[in-house]
Amino acid sequence: MSSLHYITQLMSVFLLLITLTSSSPRRVVSNDYFVTNEAELVDAIGKSVPGDMIIMKNGVWNNIDIVFKSRGAENKPITLKAETTGQVVISGASSLRLAGEYLVVEGLHFKNGHSSRNFHLIEFRDGKTHANHCRITNIAISKFNKESGTDVWVGFYGKYNRVDHCLFEGKVSRSVLMIVWRPTDDANHHSIDHNHFKDMPSIGLGGAIAIRIGDGTNASTTSATTVESNIFENMLGIGKIINIKSSGNIIRGNTFIKASGSITIRHGNNNIIEGNYIFPGLRDNYTGGVLVIGENHIIRNNYIQGTRRRGKPAITLYQGDANNYTGKGSYYPTKNILIANNTLIDNDKNILIGQKGQVAGMPDVEMAIPVENITYKENVIIGNSSPTPLIEVLEAPKGKIIYEGNLFFNGNMEGLKNVPGIAIENPRLTLGTDSLYHYDTHSPLKKNILAPPVQKKEVGPTWMN
User: Fold this and answer.
1) What is the DSSP letter of 288?
2) How do 59-62 and 140-142 pair as beta strands?
3) Cβ partners under 8 Å of residue 195, min gap 6
4) Reduced to 3 DSSP states, what percent helix, strand and coil does the chain have, rounded to the nearest 5?
5) Is the separation of the CB atoms in 89 and 112 below 8 Å?
6) Residue 431: which of 347, 346, 349 has the closest Cα?
7) In CATH, which superfamily holds the domain spanning 236-465?
8) Per-domain residue ranges for the chain?
9) Using CA atoms, how far apart are residues 221 and 59, in angstroms rounded to an integer?
10) Which residues face 205 on adjacent strands?
């Protein structure tokens, strides 16, 4: 054997060893990468093309900042997922960023750690590159809290992003859990659905606010975010569980179980709150139903039961500040409100008109603009022994006040008797074994209930159910 041939063979063996021991991601099948460490993960993301799947090896990934920056296609997303859902644990000082188009993150479990970044744990952007048409699904974040400072577990940017079938439990770090940021007036079209939010104490600075949509700066413009079919459980909000600070959103079909707080439209117009179930909260003094500020809102088909005197009413319409403006943080006037097909049962305070609010640092704000134009249509209210009228008016609203097909029964009927559009009669609701009141099958208002409450098996990660 010649020397040259021998050297050539040695070089071939050496190159083969380098290939076998390198940290490049391993293709397991066409369009799939199997990665075992951070270097392989970074390499796979950099090489990914539409339709690729990047599979993270089961185990603990400690102190890792994942920047999932790539570009999939509408019918060919790029997916970053756990080898086995729930068995890839992100721990220590870690974070996740998505940036680009049509990306999916699936099956991770954040626990035994905290965010490595100043503010967000998960963020739909990397620097100036936002995420669009991206999705986080089937993940869990369990007690992933900073010991001090503030953090937001999920920060939305971009458009058409979705968070679904996830668990968010045990957030005790300060600030809101999830925020839809709106740096421009453009509509966002995000979806937050089939998630389980639970076990959040009241700690100030937004503690126990699960979701905030907007920040009030451009609240008059449309976000078009949908919050649908989630469960909010065991939470102690300071007035708010969902805080809306933008326009054109839909809060639909959610269930609130021992969630002390309210669905609050703090700023914005043209929002729809429909088909939600709100049950008694952890503490009476924080619990409420729906708080309404602004114009052209629709409050319909909600089931609200058991709000108490020390808390907020089932539905509250606020008065406005004539001198409010963007950045002041006061209350815009409330007008053109439709309250329709709601079922309100055993609330100490059912509907309150003319509530005045307070703005921190501005004790002299005048909430002098009455509510204007209210339509009450086909609502059912069953009162209790509370002395508060079923519709309590602190200051008379102005404009058109319309009643159509409402049924009220029990409770204080002050100011409601002999009003066209209000019938004082039994709406034929019966208490079921599920502790819910149900309409008789022959009731003309049985359509007030769109669907049953969300069940726990319908929300959160599939690997936990």
Assistant:
1) -
2) unpaired
3) 163, 164, 165, 166, 167, 168, 230, 231, 459, 460
4) 10, 45, 50
5) yes
6) 346
7) Single-stranded right-handed beta-helix, Pectin lyase-like (2.160.20.10)
8) 236-465
9) 44
10) none
Written as one letter, the residue type at 443 is S
Q: What is the mean pLDDT of residues 366-382?
A: 96
Measured in residues, the chain has a length of 465
Averaged pLDDT for residues 204-232: 89
Burial class (CB in 10 A: 0-12, 13-18, 19+), 204: exposed
Strand partners, 171: none
Q: Rounded CA gap, 458 and 454, in Å? A: 7
Residue-level pLDDT at 366: 83
Per-residue pLDDT tens digits for 319-331: 999 888 888 889 9
pTM for the whole structure: 0.93
Query: What is the tens place of the pLDDT at every residue in 343-364?
Result: 999 999 999 999 988 776 676 6
Contact between 294 and 337 (Cβ < 8 Å): no
For residue 16, pLDDT beyond 50:
no
CB 317 within 8 A of CB 374: yes
